[in-house]
Design a protein that fits this description.
This protein is of the alpha/beta class and 267 residues long. The chain has eight helices and seven strands. It is 52% helix and 14% strand. The protein is globular.
Length: 267
């Protein structure tokens, strides 16, 4: 069996594992430990440079064939991550604070993001797709004391995120809301906006944000192109009339990369 066939077999194995775990955890909460293990293995697999080089070669030869597999893996792994975030939030409420390797990697990504983002105590940060365990708002609040609003469309994730914030830092200036950007007055005030990498509609929302935000807002779009697109939604070409990329932060050791957007001509 050649390397490409072995790669496809491994990816099929991951896809089958994610599908099974996403179905099984609904009946058996002990499955979260298996989810943690598979997500960790999948993250390490994607960050392996040799695997990435092989994937790039395969994309050049079989781009159309691979697209469906990419979409399925991205969707199923995202479901698994969302479930594991909820589990981590529930465990925190039981005073258990285990941190999976995946979450350690995400926290390292956030450290890099904050370093390039110039957030201060006067900043107003909007997190889109905050999830059940709001690591980004908590880290920003801890490091900068900035005002942070996190939004999500998952009501269970919102409840858990609020509980986590209360437990970890009840004095932090963090608010979690269940609404969309157009329903939030804070959107106009935001100096910084961060998109979670697993928000499927993030570029549609970015277009929606143009008339809703101030002229100096900076948007951090988490994404994954190429091999990383198996775990993250990739960048999209949205034209240059409204938004432009002012910095693109590639993180070889981290699970997603970051594109920073500003409004064209600060309009």
């Amino acid at each position: 069996m050649n390397d490409q066939n072995m790669m496809m077999q491994k990816l099929d194995t991951f896809l089958s594992a994610f599908r099974w775990l996403n179905s099984a955890h609904k009946q058996d909460e002990t499955m979260y430990h298996e989810m943690e293990e598979v997500i960790g293995e999948f993250s390490s697999f994607i960050l392996n440079k040799r695997n990435g080089a092989l994937w790039n070669l395969m994309e050049q030869q079989h781009d159309g064939v691979l697209s469906m597999l990419v979409e399925q893996l991205r969707e199923q792994s995202a479901f698994c991550v969302w479930a594991l975030e909820k589990y981590r939030a529930m465990e925190l409420q039981k005073n258990k604070q285990r941190i999976a390797d995946y979450f350690k990697n995400i926290e390292a990504c956030i450290e890099t993001e904050c370093g390039s983002f110039e957030i201060t105590c006067d900043s107003k940060v909007l997190m889109i797709g905050v999830g059940a365990f709001p690591m980004t708002p908590l880290l920003i609040a801890k490091k900068t004391d900035a005002e942070v609003v996190g939004i999500d469309i998952d009501s269970r994730a919102i409840d858990l995120a609020r509980a986590v914030v209360t437990i970890v830092d009840k004095n932090a200036r963090i608010v979690i809301k269940g609404c969309t950007v157009d329903q939030l007055g804070f959107t106009k005030k935001a100096t910084h906006i961060i998109f979670a990498s697993t928000v499927k509609e993030k570029f549609d929302i970015l277009k929606q944000l143009y008339p809703l935000t101030n002229k100096d807002v900076v948007v951090a779009m988490r994404y994954g192109n190429g091999f990383k697109s198996l775990f993250n939604y990739p960048l999209e070409d949205i034209g240059s009339s409204h938004w432009k990329i002012v910095n693109n932060i590639s993180q070889e050791e981290n699970i997603f990369d970051i594109a920073l957007y500003k409004k064209v001509n600060g309009e």
